[in-house]
Amino acid sequence: MYIVTGGAGFIGSALAWKLNRMGIEDILLVDNLGETDKWKNLRALKFIDYLEKDEFRNRVLSGGMRTEITAILHLGACSATTETDASYLIDNNFNYTKELAEFAISNNIRFIYASSAATYGDGELGYEDDENKLETLRPMNMYGYSKQIFDLWAKRRGILDKITGCKFTNVYGPNEHHKGGMRSVVCKSFAQVRDEGKMKLFKSHKPEYADGEQKRDFLYVKDAVEMVIFLMERKLTGIYNVGSGRAETWNSLANAIFAAMDKEPNIEYIDMPEELRDRYQYYTCAEMDKLISCGYDKPATPLADAIKDYVQNYLLPDKFLGDEAPLV
Questions:
Q1: CA distances to 11, 62, 128, 138, 181 from 124, in Å
Q2: What per-residue string of b and e applies to 8-23 under the rule 16 or more CB within 10 Å gives b?
Q3: Residue 57: what are its φ and ψ, rounded to 5°?
Q4: Is residue 95 scored above 80 in pLDDT?
Q5: Angle of helix 221-233 relative to helix 10-21, nearest 10 degrees?
Q6: DSSP string spanning 289-302?
Q7: Active centre residues (catalytic)
C-alpha cells in the first residue's frame, strides 16, 4: 500500500493521479478536508481508503498502522507563505513530518517528504541542493523555516541517507482551485483574464529588473510528480530540487496565458504591497544537476506548452486530474 498525505491537496492529489496512471490503486489518502473544496480533487481518483489527518496521526503514534506499506509520500502541510501562526506551522509541518519519518524508518518504509525552495530565502547563496549548506540558508518566512527546520533535524539525526526530501519550486497546474489566495499566478490570472480581460503583475522595485521581468523557476505539476516518482522508484535518498531548472519572466508566463486563451496580451503593472517588498524574490532557479546526475532525463515541459495544457484541458473546461480520457 502507498500512503499519500495531503492526498486531497494540490501536489498530493497529482501524485495519486500519477500512481493511478501507473496502474496503482492500493492507496491510502490522508488529508484534512474541513470546509474546503479539496474533496473535488478526489472524485476522479482511485484509492482504497481515506483518513482524516488527526486520525491517521493517532494511528501512527499508537501503533495502529499495521498494513504492509510500500512508501509514504508525505505532501501534507500548510503551504501558505503568509501564515503567521508559528506554533501551528511547527506542529503541522515539523512535528507531523518527524512522526512519519520515525515511523517509516522504524518499519523500513520508503519515506519521501515535501521540503520547499522557500528554504533558500532570498537566493543570495544560490539554489543548490547541497546538504552540506543547509545550515547557511535563511528562509524569508515562517513557512520556509518550518520546512528547513525538518531538513536540519533530519541531518542532525543522521537520517538523510534513509529518507528523501523534495524542494519544490513554483509548482502550478490542475487541482489547485481550493488554495484560494495561495493558488499559482497562472490559476489566478486565468480568472482575471477571463473576467476582466487583463492580467495584473507586480511592478519591479529594483532598477536592474524591468516591470514583469522578475524571474521564477515555474514547474508544471505533471513534471513535479514525474520527478517524485523517479526518486521513489530509484530509492534515492537525501534532498533534491524538484524544479524546471529554468528562470522564466512573469511577462513570459503572462503572454503564454493570453496565447492559451487566444487573447491579445493586456498586462497591468501594479505596486507591490510595502509589506512584501523586503521578502520578495526577484530571481529563483533550481539547480537540477544532482537529480540529472542520478539518471533523470525528462526535460521539464516548456512553459508555453504546460500553460496551454493547463488552460485548455483543465481551466477552461473546469476539469480535474483524472477527468482525462483513460489511457489505452
A1: 27, 43, 11, 10, 27
A2: bbbbbbbbbbbbbeee
A3: -60, -40
A4: yes
A5: 60
A6: HHHHHTT---PPPP
A7: 143, 179
Model-level pTM?
A: 0.94
Q: Confirm if 232 and 164 have CB atoms less than 8 A apart.
A: yes
DSSP string, 54-114: HHHHHHHHHT---S--SEEEE--S---TT---HHHHIIIIIIHHHHHHHHHHHTT-EEEEE
pLDDT single digits (tens) 129-146? 999 999 999 998 989 999
| Residue 215, all three cell numbers | 524571474
Output the CA angle 265-266-268, nearest 5 degrees.
Answer: 140
Q: Which of 114, 24, 93, 103 lies closest to 67 in space, CA to CA?
A: 103
Q: In angstroms, rounded to a whole number, what is the distance separating the alpha carbons of residues 248 and 267?
A: 17
Condensed to tens digits (0 to 9), the pLDDT of residues 5-47 reads 999 999 999 999 999 999 999 999 999 999 999 999 999 999 9
